């Protein structure tokens, strides 16, 4: 089990990777780690995440209020987006936001990443929808992201960038890396011609591998919003994801949880 200082050091290391791989420019991007239900570490606003040291890292509560920040540092301007993910996805322990070149290009053109073209992307990510545009630092982004949280572990932010979340910082970062690699492959294969997509049989096999691996998180192999609603799948899963009983039960449980949350929000509970 890492102590708080070790987690801060890991956040600095991830900052270097995100910056050095060109997934952010200048001071862009932010990430956070959940310590417990009321304490979260996050990157500070307005600094290059590639040059951070542990003293840069801020601590906030579940509402994003500052619990601890060294002089000259304030939490990320996007902290509300992070907090919304933790609030609606109790299984998530880390959130990573970046502006990777290819993924952001798709987000700017309004093209979600839904073409199944390589096994790793299908197994690790499924497909990646686009959350509608919101003004940075306002509640518009958390509200837009919220629509996708119960079904996906990564989303594009329209005309902005990408968001990935998982059970650990490294895993959330890896999702961002996979997302960008997938976006780059999709872009380049479209330049060469029409990318060849997997057929239903190939997809079924890949989704079965994902189930066998028991990977955490939400994925169309486990929860497909369209298959659940009896519509044709929008996520290249051929509808197979809704077929198995345990997955269907998970989907129902998710739906009940989401409706309960909306009712409680409306009642102000
Ligand atoms: P912060 O430096 O405030 O985290 O903002 C960076 C960013 O990329 C906003 O989208």
TrEMBL record:
GO BP, one annotated term: pentose catabolic process
Source species of the chain: Faecalicatena orotica
SMART domains documented for this protein: Aldolase_II (SM01007)
Domain of life the protein comes from: Bacteria
Gene Ontology cellular component annotations, sorted alphabetically: cytosol
Family annotation (InterPro entries): Aldolase_class_II_sugar_metab, Aldolase_II/adducin_N, Aldolase_II/adducin_N_sf
Signal peptide positions (record): none
Protein name (Swiss-Prot/TrEMBL): L-fuculose-phosphate aldolase
Keyword Lyase appears in the UniProt entry: yes
Annotated Class II aldolase/adducin N-terminal domain residues: 9-187
Keywords: Lyase, Metal-binding
UniProt keyword Metal-binding present: yes
One annotated GO molecular function: metal ion binding
Pfam families named among the record's database cross-references: Aldolase_II
């Amino acid at each position: 089990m890492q102590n708080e200082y070790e987690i801060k050091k890991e956040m600095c290391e991830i900052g270097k990777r995100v910056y050095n791989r060109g997934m952010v420019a200048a001071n862009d991007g932010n990430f956070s780690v959940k310590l417990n239900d009321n304490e979260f570490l996050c990157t500070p606003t307005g600094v290059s995440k590639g040059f951070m040291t542990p003293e840069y890292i801020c601590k906030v509560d579940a509402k994003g209020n500052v619990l601890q920040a060294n002089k000259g540092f304030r939490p990320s301007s996007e902290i509300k987006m992070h907090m919304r993910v933790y609030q609606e996805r109790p299984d998530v322990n880390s959130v990573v936001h970046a502006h990777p070149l290819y993924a952001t290009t798709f987000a700017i053109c309004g093209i979600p990443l839904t073409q199944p073209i390589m096994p790793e992307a299908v197994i690790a990510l499924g497909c990646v929808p686009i959350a509608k545009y919101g003004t940075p630092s306002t509640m518009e982004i958390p509200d837009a992201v919220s629509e996708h949280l119960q079904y996906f572990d990564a989303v594009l932010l329209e005309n902005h960038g990408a968001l990935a979340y998982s059970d650990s910082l490294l895993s959330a970062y890896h999702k961002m890396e996979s997302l960008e690699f997938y976006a780059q492959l999709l872009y380049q294969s479209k330049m060469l011609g029409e990318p060849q997509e997997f057929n239903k049989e190939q997809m079924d096999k890949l989704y079965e591998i994902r189930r066998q691996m028991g990977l955490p998180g939400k994925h169309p192999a486990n929860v497909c919003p369209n298959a659940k609603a009896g519509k044709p799948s929008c996520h290249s899963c051929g509808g197979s994801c809704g077929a198995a009983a345990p997955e269907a039960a998970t989907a129902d449980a998710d739906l009940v949880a989401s409706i309960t949350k909306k009712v409680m929000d409306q009642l102000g509970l």
